[in-house]
C-alpha cells in the first residue's frame, strides 16, 4: 500500500465517521461556514477550558462532500486539547500546505492525519472543500 492509498483510506474513514459530527452539549463558540461554490455547509462548535486558553472539545454538523466532511473531522481530532495558540498555528500550517507555501515534511508532520489532504492542492475545485472547516475555525478563534 503506498502513501496515496493510506491518505485515501484516512479521508474515507473520516468522511464516514460520526465521531466528530454532532452537536456539543455545551459550547463557548459556534460559527457557521459555507462554501457557495459547491454547497458545503458546516457549523463548528468549540468548548473551551475554564481559563479559555485551551480547546477542550470541538465538533461540527452540516452537509457536504466527502472532502469537506473528512477535513472537518480530521481537524477536530487534531485540535482537541490544543491551546488556542497551537490551533492558530496548525490552521496556518494546514492552509499553507494547501496553498503549497509550506512544503517541508518536518512542519507538515505537525498536521498528523490532516497531511492526508496535502494533494488536494492539485485539484483546484476541491481546495475550498478541504479548507472550509479550517477557515471557519480560524475566523472564530481570531475574533474571540
TrEMBL record:
Pfam family, one: NifU_N
Cross-referenced Gene3D superfamilies: 3.90.1010.10
GO biological process, any: iron-sulfur cluster assembly
Entry's Gene Ontology molecular function annotations: iron ion binding; iron-sulfur cluster binding
Superkingdom of the source species: Bacteria
Domain NIF system FeS cluster assembly NifU N-terminal: from-to ranges: 7-96
Family in the record: Belongs to the NifU family.
PANTHER family: IRON-SULFUR CLUSTER ASSEMBLY ENZYME NIFU HOMOLOG
Record-given protein name: SUF system FeS assembly protein, NifU family
Organism name: Peptoanaerobacter stomatis
Amino acid at each position: 500500500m503506498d502513501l496515496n492509498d493510506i491518505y485515501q483510506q484516512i479521508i474515507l474513514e473520516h468522511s464516514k465517521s460520526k465521531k466528530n459530527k454532532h452537536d456539543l452539549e455545551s459550547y463557548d463558540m459556534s460559527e457557521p461556514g459555507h462554501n457557495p461554490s459547491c454547497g458545503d455547509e458546516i457549523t463548528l462548535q468549540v468548548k473551551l477550558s475554564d481559563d479559555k486558553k485551551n480547546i477542550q472539545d470541538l465538533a461540527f454538523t452540516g452537509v457536504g462532500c466527502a472532502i469537506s466532511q473528512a477535513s472537518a473531522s480530521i481537524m477536530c481530532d487534531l485540535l482537541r486539547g490544543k491551546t488556542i495558540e497551537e490551533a492558530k498555528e496548525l490552521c496556518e500550517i494546514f492552509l499553507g500546505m494547501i496553498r503549497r507555501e509550506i512544503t517541508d515534511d518536518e512542519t507538515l508532520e505537525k498536521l498528523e492525519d490532516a497531511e492526508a489532504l496535502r494533494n488536494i492542492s492539485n485539484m483546484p475545485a476541491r481546495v475550498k472543500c478541504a479548507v472550509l472547516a479550517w477557515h471557519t475555525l480560524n475566523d472564530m478563534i481570531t475574533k474571540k
